Amino acid sequence: MPELPEVEALALDLRGRLVDRAITRVDLAAFSALKTFDPPLQALHGTLVEDVTRHGKFLDITASGLHLVVHLARAGWIRWKEEVPALPARPNSKSPLAARVVIDDTSGLDITEAGTKKSLALYVVRDPSDVEGIARLGPDPLDDAFTIDVLREILEREGRKQIKGVLRMQSLIAGIGNAYSDELLHAARLSPFKPANSLDDTELQTLYDAVKGVLGDAVERSRGLAASELKGEKKSNLAVHGRTGQPCPVCGDTVREVSFADSSLQYCPTCQTGGKPLADRRLSKLLK
């Protein structure tokens, strides 16, 4: 799933390609992806791109005062094409294409979504805050206003909730998903099941430094990369997420996994849980 660093890099890459360029047309290939009707999608035709920005994990293409907002969900991505087909894209249930944005010189971008579970969302709005998901976003962790006191207040307010879930809640902190919450907790040497309000001052400072450092470093590594290179860059620099069974790059212990109904988390027992493996609920049920 694209998270804050990848969406930030996508915005930077697309800003360089799209600003001051005219949108010739937008083809909708997956009708379920479009979540708004006013303004209509056709209102973007003939507009001039003014900026490409990010709100949490939402990508925002601003064109002549309108906003094409994209949420890539779990399996969405954006692919730049130097030349797009002359004929408009048509709905095709077997194609990953959700929408195509065509620019004035026949280049453009394909917005795609892999898999059968379709969650990618497109919005055409006059103001980004018209998108409910953006309106309820928490503070951006890379903003200067996101101080250690802001983090402390969030964690204390969430009480005994597991810190992994708190970090992922977009209404609390914008942009952190499943992968980077694993990475932040590993860097901070905290159990993903630790209650949010139980951190002492040292643990809080370590987590805050991890938020700023891990996310900031990921953004810097991604800066200047084309969209086609971002997935590989992310995967090659993860310490624990998606690395079940591999050695922890810090201590060499085996990275473990806890599975849930539709997701999983990865962690290092030595670095994060005092050497004790966490109970994998899915495996526990199979053993009963």
Automatic annotation (TrEMBL):
<keyword id="KW-0479">Metal-binding</keyword>
<keyword id="KW-0456">Lyase</keyword>
<keyword id="KW-0255">Endonuclease</keyword>
<dbReference type="GO" id="GO:0003906">
    <property type="term" value="F:DNA-(apurinic or apyrimidinic site) endonuclease activity"/>
</dbReference>
<dbReference type="InterPro" id="IPR012319">
    <property type="entry name" value="FPG_cat"/>
</dbReference>
<keyword id="KW-0326">Glycosidase</keyword>
<keyword id="KW-0238">DNA-binding</keyword>
<keyword id="KW-0862">Zinc</keyword>
<dbReference type="InterPro" id="IPR010663">
    <property type="entry name" value="Znf_FPG/IleRS"/>
</dbReference>
<dbReference type="Pfam" id="PF06827">
    <property type="entry name" value="zf-FPG_IleRS"/>
</dbReference>
<dbReference type="Pfam" id="PF06831">
    <property type="entry name" value="H2TH"/>
</dbReference>
<dbReference type="InterPro" id="IPR000214">
    <property type="entry name" value="Znf_DNA_glyclase/AP_lyase"/>
</dbReference>
<feature type="domain" description="FPG-type">
    <location>
        <begin position="239"/>
        <end position="273"/>
    </location>
</feature>
<dbReference type="InterPro" id="IPR010979">
    <property type="entry name" value="Ribosomal_uS13-like_H2TH"/>
</dbReference>
<keyword id="KW-0540">Nuclease</keyword>
<dbReference type="GO" id="GO:0006284">
    <property type="term" value="P:base-excision repair"/>
</dbReference>
<feature type="domain" description="Formamidopyrimidine-DNA glycosylase catalytic">
    <location>
        <begin position="2"/>
        <end position="120"/>
    </location>
</feature>
<keyword id="KW-0378">Hydrolase</keyword>
<dbReference type="InterPro" id="IPR035937">
    <property type="entry name" value="FPG_N"/>
</dbReference>
<keyword id="KW-0227">DNA damage</keyword>
<dbReference type="GO" id="GO:0016829">
    <property type="term" value="F:lyase activity"/>
</dbReference>
<keyword id="KW-0234">DNA repair</keyword>
<dbReference type="InterPro" id="IPR015886">
    <property type="entry name" value="H2TH_FPG"/>
</dbReference>
<protein>
    <submittedName>
        <fullName>Endonuclease VIII</fullName>
    </submittedName>
</protein>
<keyword id="KW-0863">Zinc-finger</keyword>
<comment type="similarity">
    <text>Belongs to the FPG family.</text>
</comment>
<dbReference type="GO" id="GO:0003684">
    <property type="term" value="F:damaged DNA binding"/>
</dbReference>
<dbReference type="Pfam" id="PF01149">
    <property type="entry name" value="Fapy_DNA_glyco"/>
</dbReference>
<dbReference type="GO" id="GO:0034039">
    <property type="term" value="F:8-oxo-7,8-dihydroguanine DNA N-glycosylase activity"/>
</dbReference>
<dbReference type="GO" id="GO:0008270">
    <property type="term" value="F:zinc ion binding"/>
</dbReference>
<keyword id="KW-0511">Multifunctional enzyme</keyword>
